[in-house]
Amino acid sequence: MTRENELLNRIKNGDSDALSDLVKFYYSDILRYCLWHAQSRESAEDATQETFLKAIRYFDYYVHKGQFKAFLYKIAANTCVDMHRKKYIKDVSIENQQEEFSYIEKGFLEVEADIQLHQMIKDLSDDLREIVILRFSQGLSLREIASITELPLRTVQSRLRRTLKQLKSEYKKGGNGIEHKT
């Protein structure tokens, strides 16, 4: 039994401590995801908290089929979109991200890689950028991404493949004004 399954079973059996354990288990992943969609750490933290509040509120409607993580990411995606529509989360600026990320102590190398990834994908369309973020920043499987984006698995695969080819081509050409050796 996975840790997720164990926690979900404990919650269904009325264990209130399991709920806080579940939040702790996924908090850093969801926060990291929200940082991609927020201008500031505070906005991302608010979106993360709102995500967990919604997950708790709708927990009784969730039918566990081994995809709770995808369920959380879908809620986080919708929360970020809702907050952006309300002008709560402004457009992401790499300068703000670099400043914000510099204050995160643990996982510095991951954050540095996130900044490089952000620079590479900033000109992609929203739907393609989302697939790349979920795959390479969040480390989700293609099946999880398909569930979150509500796209067929084959569509996710083809879009990711096409996007990676595009990024590779731009990288070789020296995209973003950077000279690269091949």
UniProtKB/TrEMBL annotation:
Gene3D superfamilies reported for this sequence: 1.10.1740.10, Winged helix-like DNA-binding domain superfamily/Winged helix DNA-binding domain
Name assigned to this protein: RNA polymerase sigma factor
Keyword Transcription attached: yes
BP terms from Gene Ontology: DNA-templated transcription initiation
NCBIfam families with a match to the protein in the record: sigma70-ECF
Domain RNA polymerase sigma factor 70 region 4 type positions: 116-167
Entry's Gene Ontology molecular function annotations: DNA binding; sigma factor activity
Record-annotated RNA polymerase sigma-70 region domain positions: 22-87
Organism, as annotated: Clostridium sartagoforme
Protein family membership: Belongs to the sigma-70 factor family. ECF subfamily.
Key words of the record: Sigma factor, Transcription, Transcription regulation
InterPro entries: RNA_pol_sigma-70-like (IPR039425), RNA_pol_sigma-70_dom (IPR014284), RNA_pol_sigma70_r2 (IPR007627), RNA_pol_sigma70_r4_t2 (IPR013249), RNA_pol_sigma_r2 (IPR013325), RNA_pol_sigma_r3/r4-like (IPR013324), WH-like_DNA-bd_sf (IPR036388)
Pfam families per the UniProt record, alphabetical: Sigma70_r2 (PF04542), Sigma70_r4_2 (PF08281)
Keyword Transcription regulation set for record: yes
